[in-house]
Design brief:
With 520 residues, the protein is mainly alpha-helical. The chain contains 19 helices and four strands. The longest helix has 25 residues.
Length: 520
């Protein structure tokens, strides 16, 4: 892997923040700026915005067309972008783009940390950068599995080896713990009030986010290393995570460059994304609230908030269609697309829903772990209440929804103690189903990870798969892990340019090989 800086940091900062200083007078190479010449908080701003796959170009290619499709949140048909059947979505070249941009973000964060680590007044900038670095690495290792981590973009210029995913998780846990502990509320906020576009330099909020991120990581590895998961979940919760009194954590839109506003309205405008049948099946009937947008006459009240009805109904399309099998009725113009009244260009890109934190705590409590005294049921119902409230559902309807024994198409109901031995209705599946629904539209990485970890919530296997990739065609009965994609291939440029290190992970480079965190 090449760790050099792929873009001019200084040029990017000038473009994004409208600096008016005449940089031509500076005695530095603008393509390789001296660290002292760049305000570290401005470096931080760029990575906060784009390190979460924030620009529409990369977001659509990686988050929307790949991850959101495999999570069955939304789908792009094969006659638009998606490859035939259910094999590998998108172009392999897009993974080269992501890999290069990702390690550019890591290079910038490491530059900030490395060059300013001995400056006490910049301590909080450094700790925030370390927390965000984990956010970025979690997405990357979720996509590929083993990747360069410990020596990546370290300034040495030496191509780093691929680190195992289990060691990466240990490294991320340590990074988060140290960074959260290192945040110092007594320091002056200074330029962070402007350049920290998420929390405006509020250290207490970064601590909560850092602990919530640590809890996310802990619940991700429950099937792979339960003891490590338990320790980190309990420590994160004890340290203080996001609560019902907090807003969701999000990256705000910028307007200085194309694609830096909230991107989903663009995809709808281009006619390129629509509701999946799997998501529709989770919503219809669930909660027992009368709603004519569902053919059954009732369902989750968030359905028409998330998606625009067509002809008075929510309409969806099956996964796994081939180019030849797509009919006019399958096209986005004839089905429900993300609701652009709800999801506007001015929306924040949500990176940590509070509801997710509550559902993660609920799952931890269900396992008998120490979550501070609350029960799994209390946390589960708090997560539901938070999500429904933020979308304007009435108090009366929330009470009806939480008490409802009405199941969705696959037998999952809302009421905590209802039919918990029934198919797809265990208390764990209730938690994961509600976490999935509440996370829409930005939490596709979490939805896909939970499905790879637990095969929950119930998502129908694609009706056709491209078996040349190794994914097994579902025929009958309950789908298994073998019917779904597990990871993305390594970028072709990496295969060519770093052949020695790639050779050590080549055996794992199949989209059907489970990642370590799944426990399989």
């Amino acid at each position: 892997m090449k760790t050099k800086l792929y873009i001019s940091i200084l040029a990017v900062l000038i473009m994004f923040f409208g600096c008016t200083k005449d940089y031509t007078d500076m005695n530095v190479n603008p393509n390789n700026p001296e660290p002292a010449a760049v305000d570290p908080a401005m470096l931080l701003t760029y990575t906060l915005k784009h390190g979460g796959i924030g620009n529409a170009d990369l977001h659509q290619r990686i988050h929307n067309i790949m991850v959101d499709t495999w999570a069955e949140y939304m789908i792009d048909l094969p006659d638009h972008w998606y490859t035939d059947n259910y094999g590998f979505g998108g172009e392999l070249a897009w993974l080269n783009q992501y890999w290069n941009e990702f390690y550019t973000w890591i290079n910038e964060v490491n530059l900030l940390i490395r060059e300013n680590k001995d400056k006490p007044d910049l301590k909080n900038q450094i700790e925030i950068a370390r927390i965000w670095k984990v956010h970025m690495f979690l997405q990357a290792t979720d996509l590929f599995g083993d990747i360069p981590y410990f020596k990546a973009a370290d300034g040495s210029g030496i191509p780093p080896k691929y680190d195992s995913q289990d060691s990466i998780y240990i490294g991320m846990f340590n990074e988060l713990k140290d960074a959260v502990d290192g945040l110092d509320g007594s320091l002056l906020v200074g330029s962070l009030s402007i350049q920290d576009i998420i929390f405006k330099g509020d250290v207490a909020k970064w601590k909560k986010y850092g602990n919530s991120l640590r809890l996310r990581l802990a619940m991700r590895i429950t099937e792979a290393n339960s003891a490590l998961a338990k320790t980190n979940a309990e420590e994160a919760i004890a340290g203080g995570v996001l609560t019902e009194s907090d807003p969701d954590v999000g990256v705000p839109p910028l307007t200085l460059r194309w694609g830096d506003t909230y991107p989903i309205p663009m995809y709808v405008g281009w006619g390129e994304t629509e509701m999946t049948q799997g998501f529709y099946n989770l919503l219809e009937g669930l909660g027992g609230i009368s709603d004519t947008v569902y053919k059954a006459g009732s369902g989750d009240p968030r359905g028409k908030i998330y998606f625009s009805p067509k002809g008075g109904y929510l309409k969806s399309v099956a996964m796994g269609l081939s180019t030849d099998s797509v009919k006019p009725i399958d096209e986005p113009v004839n089905n429900s697309q993300p609701n652009t009244v709800t999801f506007t260009p001015s929306r924040n890109m949500c990176v940590m829903p509070v509801s997710e934190v509550l559902f993660n705590e609920a799952e931890a409590a269900l396992k008998g772990w120490n979550v501070g005294g609350k029960t799994a049921q209390q946390l589960y119902e708090a997560g539901i209440t938070y999500s429904l409230t933020q979308w304007g559902v009435s108090i009366a309807d929330i009470a009806t929804y939480i008490a409802s024994t009405a199941p969705n198409a696959k037998g999952t109901s809302v009421a905590w103690n209802d039919n918990i031995t029934g198919a797809h209705n265990s208390q764990l599946e209730k938690i994961i189903t509600q976490k999935y629904i509440a996370g829409f539209p930005d939490n596709g990485f979490e939805a896909w990870a939970d499905h790879r970890r637990l095969l929950m919530p119930f998502l129908p296997s694609p009706i056709l798969v491209d078996e040349s990739w190794g994914v097994t065609q579902w025929v009958s009965g309950e789908p298994t892990f073998a019917n779904y994609i597990e990871r993305v291939p390594y970028p072709s440029n990496e295969v060519l340019n770093d052949a020695a290190n790639y050779a050590l992970v080549k055996a794992k480079d199949k989209i059907t090989i489970p990642e370590w965190f799944t426990g399989r």
